[in-house]
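Practice set, problem 2.
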Amino acid sequence: MQLFVVGPPRSGITIVTQFLNHHEDIKIFDEIDLIQVGRYGDSVIGTLQAFLLERDVYEAYQRRARETSDPAVALGAVMSKLAWPRTIWGEKNPRYATQLDALRRIFPKAVVVFVLRDPREVVNSCLAHRDSPLRAPTDFWIKDTVAEALTLVDSCLQPLRAGGADLVVVRYEAFAAQPKATLDAALGRWGLTFSDGALPLAHPAPETVGEHQFFRDGAPLPWKAGNLSPLHQARPTRGRVDADDPAWSQVDALAREFGYD
């Protein structure tokens, strides 16, 4: 079984993934670009190639891809071995929120968890770190204006507007309040149940390629501070960035559209 966690950046998809990974049968990797498989025949490039090379399985993947003539099947076999003894593997990636058709073509039987958070909180979070000295071009979600952040969040929510019947929607607010009950309700149909025992734990980062994703050049990333703490640690409240920007009225409308008063 494959399990993917998607949603707008800053919606809590990392902490949801961390909590899922406490389950004895689940292994979700972090932004390794599994969706790239098949674009270049039996080869892959970029992040996915680096991930497979780091684990000395790239040649095994290529060999299997040539034997099966199906790169996705070959990748699935390799990922199953990397995840073993856990039987459910997948990826957390916010970019997939706008690439669900491609994801479905490659992994048609995958379960896709879509994390939905109040768009006002998401937009604010996209703006909060714009002046950080640790900001890098890869931080595509960090935006300089309310309008830019709104455009990003709105595009990521489009699958829910289209119906999203095949998506497992998890509201972040419900998850933060009752993680076990929320995930049991979302994934119980696949026989998965979760434990409140993970609540007090500091959750390890999902496995990825290269450097630990919560640090950069040895320095902790300020926007990942919450992921290094137990789930129920109180978070500081944050006022709206650029509160007088008229684009906030559109953000408020987007929040209402998705059930946030």
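Problem 2, part (b): a different protein.
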Amino acid sequence: MDSIMMYRKTTKNLGEFSGSTSFLKQVELKMLVWSFRNTAGLSTPGVAYGGWEAPDCELRGHFVGHYLSASALMWASTHNETLKKKMSAVVSALHDCQNKMGTGYLSAFPSEQFDRFEALKPVWAPYYTIHKILAGLLDQYTLANNTGSLEMALNEETGGMNDVLYKLYSITGNQKHFTLAQLFDKPCFLGLLAVKADDISGFHANTHIPIVIGSQMRYELTGDPLYKEIGKFFMDIVNSSYTYATGGTSHGEFWKDPKRLASFLDAENEESCTTYNMLKVSRNLFRWTKKVGYADYYERTLTNGVLSIQRGREPGIMIYMLPLGHGESKARSANEGWGTKYDSFWCCYGTGIESFSKLGDSIYFEEEGKVPGIYIIQYISSSFNWNSQNIVINLKVEPVVSWDGHLHVAVIISSNKQKEASTLNFRVPSWANTEAANAFLNDQKLFLPNPGSFLSITREWSSSDKITLELPMSIRLEALQDDRREYASDHAILYGPYLLVGLSSGERNINTDTAVSTFDWITPIPAAYNSHLITLSQEFKNNSFVLTNSNKSITVGMLPESGSNHSVYATFRLVLRNPTSTELLVPEDCIGKTVGLEPFDLPGMVVVERGINQSLGVEDAIGNSDSTFILVQGLDGKSETVSLESARHRGCFVYSSLDLHSSVKLKCSAGSSDVKFKQAASFRLRDGISKYDPISFVAKGEKRNFLLQPILSLRDENYVVYFKIQSNKLSAEF
């Protein structure tokens, strides 16, 4: 069964990452190939990029190889002509360097690095870099039809890794390439897997996962079942003993003790490169076996492990590792947090741009045979032209939301006239509850098989045939892979394939003993709540300031950017105390009404007064009579401001002192002429800086509640992945 490259349309779930194309086009050619030209003895106009592409970095040139692969993958999906010209210019520039060298050698560093490597002298990873360059040239040939890049690959003095050399052999049929590939099979590692020894602890993960990928390529070329079994066993042991709830693996770039992950939850989890490579392993295994488990793994790891490593909608801003420690933040990821757009270029930047260039490469898989078939294994809005059957498959997936509880999928067929009957196979994810699921072909209801299988429909397809799926998404718990008793209660919370994390600096205790059902301790946040979010700001000393929750005390802080802890602390939900039948549409509707202020990250708590001239704090909302304020027009007389009057102490208002970091208090007016008081008690009513993700829940904790959102939605906020969940009836699906 061969995977099919498809034309990918933008989607709401993945469209936020569509900036990858613009980043690939923005990369400056002269800066990209500067070190290649320098090594070849050509003129070097301009300057080189920094980071791992800097002229003094021994790994320089690796990103150029990734760029060639990423641009080829993106072009294969989009056929963007500007990108085509750009990547062809890069290949041409590298060709000039190779010609100038005259030996077939092509790299951004001199060949003496290989001499040092063979002499066991200190050097970084020359074969790693050559592998990336060669892989990029082959992708330009196989995906973008650049025949010149194949000629360059054939001239390259690589000594590269097994995967790319087996690929080269598959194109050329030259036995020398096959023999050279075998030399890099690393029997000290593959041999352990061949005898099914679970002994990968201590190995560098991103060095050895590609060796497994190479062995998979060897299986495809030779049919030797040993290498198929190696891939299956490797995936089994990684998934059972070394994998986080994101689908990722590794700590500090290495595999540590199996089923002891609690000891390694910090800022150095899950190197991004390992995630990129594990997806390749699972993709190959699915192609061979058609087992849904591999497709489920791909979905989970793509959703949480790949989409989480880019900073929101900022292409070119990525992290090296994905922190999973209690109260960690992506901004504190190992290797200095977020990289910079043009001065980092770590290995994970290279695999990152490839990952975001092929978000749609594993949606459709074609199976040839007497009755040809298509397997649809990822539900991502897209279209696929199945030329051999005169069919266009249009896949539309509605954005997932927490308040609906279903994944809604529609597939509409366009066909001039199909040649013969064919089969469409739809993955029924393992996380789906088929008892409440629905499937229809046009108006006919279909029987859905058990989760972890495929719904298969065979017919002669005609235009306007429509298949609809409604797959229930439930909350489920997944235990941390640690077999020590003291960590038995450590669990991650998932909603379908989405890993939910709690906004927290480290608190993580939940007790569900009194819960009868899931919704007794975890509830979805309604869609309307985003319109209730506010930030209260003031202008003084030529700056903008906000009321902020600082360790459950209300203080004055600088106006923050969104996606940060400070934006979380400066956002509150406006809660009507005596709601009528009229729905709150916008905060201005609350003028003249009694309200409460709920901190964004502390659902179930409220801002409270602690007496006149005393600082405001944050406490539990239940039974608290000191949390009610009357929202009135601003005392300063400005139309855009409001003031908060105490419901218990009329004539007393929330007051800021107009001073950064000062405590916010409840103060009483000294009279109508007190201009400073009126200014300090008046606030601009802004939309909340932070927003609820469409997939948001509230989980009841022991001492506080937690706002849960997908890990992919966060930028710089602190979060907790694994909660300590105490329950006498704990189960995988509550």
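Answer key, part (b): The two ends are 37 Å apart (CA to CA). Residues 291 and 453 are 8 Å apart (CA to CA).
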